[in-house]
Every structure is written in structure tokens, then in C-alpha cells.
Sequence to fold (65 residues):
Amino acid sequence: TLIETYNIYFVVLIIALAIWDGIWKLFAMWRACKRDSKLWFILIAVFNTLGVMPILYLIFTREEN
Fold:
């Protein structure tokens, strides 16, 4: 039925968002550890919404080439 189809799409969307979030979080936390930035590490670990905090951290700490 239509409701079952929407439920499947909803589950797939949730899984995709969790993967998206996890990837950004891992990259940002890895960089925070590498730079010995304990405050950013804690902020990313605690205040994380769909990768917003890790993405901001990665943008603000990118190295100039």
C-alpha cells in the first residue's frame, strides 16, 4: 500500500542521514584530535545536528595550500 511505501522511504532516509552525519562527525573529530583541540572535540561530540557542527569545524580549520 501507499503507507508501507512511504514507511520504507522514511527508513531509508533516516539511514542515509545517519550515515551522512557519521561521516562528517568522524572527519571533524579526527581532525580535532590531530590538532589537540579538546573543546572542539567535545562540542562536536555533544552538539551535533545532521553534521552542522563537524562541517563548520572542518571549514574553519581547513589548511591553506
In short: DSSP finds three helices and no strands in the chain. The helical segments are 2-34, 38-46, 52-60. The CA atoms of residues 23 and 48 lie 12 Å apart.
